[in-house]
TrEMBL record:
PANTHER family: CARBON DISULFIDE HYDROLASE (PTHR43175:SF3), CARBONIC ANHYDRASE (PTHR43175)
Binding site for Zn(2+): C39, D41, H97, C100
Name of the protein described by the UniProt record: carbonic anhydrase
Superkingdom assignment: Bacteria
EC number: 4.2.1.1
First-tier enzyme category under EC: lyase
Presence of the UniProt keyword ATP-binding in the record: no
The organism of origin for this protein: Bacillus safensis
Keywords in alphabetical order: Lyase, Metal-binding, Zinc
Length: 193
């Protein structure tokens, strides 16, 4: 049986040889000067850019589980800052979604699944003893709107975030692509509350 990787590589060979990449050519700087943090949910792969009117090359898109900024000095925040300082992004959108797998996620069932897949208790102890709050790290959120608002706050208040960069929070419906604004940066529209 052919592995997923072999299928990907076979397709890629044809993709390159037949020059199917031509329509996707873009520069490294985002044309719309936008950086987006969103969820890794498969339903958003094409829906999110289409619902926002984005084409290849328009925005820097960062994805993780839940579109969450969990640490002010983690890789997500570093990526946002690099997009601003090195890649000329001028606005940030954090886009969560309804029906997110992180909503209501509890650590204990996830850890039980890890154990069922062969992760031994000693491995969990190593993580716990390294100072990581394993249960907190593997717990989701109750409200996507509150989660998005919290991430917006963390980004906006980051000590390395320039004050002239707008940071917005939105929630997308994964079936229709409808966007709801949770936080609209007041510097863009001072009348918005």
């Amino acid at each position: 049986m052919e592995s997923k990787l072999e299928q990907i590589l076979q397709h890629n060979s044809e993709f390159v040889n037949e020059r199917h990449y031509e329509p996707y050519k873009a520069g490294k700087f985002p044309e719309k000067k936008l950086v987006i943090l969103t969820c890794m949910d498969t339903r958003l792969l094409e829906l999110l850019p289409q619902s926002m009117g984005l084409r290849n090359g328009d925005a820097k898109i960062i994805k993780n589980a839940g579109a969450i900024v969990t640490h002010p000095f983690g890789s997500v925040m570093r990526s946002i800052l690099l997009a601003i300082y090195e890649l000329k992004a001028e606005e940030v959108c954090i886009v969560g979604h309804h029906e997110c797998g992180m909503a209501g996620l509890a650590a204990d069932p996830l850890l039980e699944k890890a154990k069922a897949r062969g992760i031994e208790e000693k491995c969990l102890s190593i993580v716990k003893n390294s100072g990581v709050d394993l249960k907190g790290w593997l717990t989701g959120f109750d409200s996507v709107e509150e989660s998005v608002a919290q991430s917006v706050k963390l980004v906006k208040e980051h000590p390395l975030m320039p004050s002239d960069v707008a940071v917005h929070g939105l929630v997308i419906h994964p079936a229709t692509g409808k966007l709801d604004v949770v936080v609209k940066d007041k510097q863009i529209d001072p009348q918005y509350t």
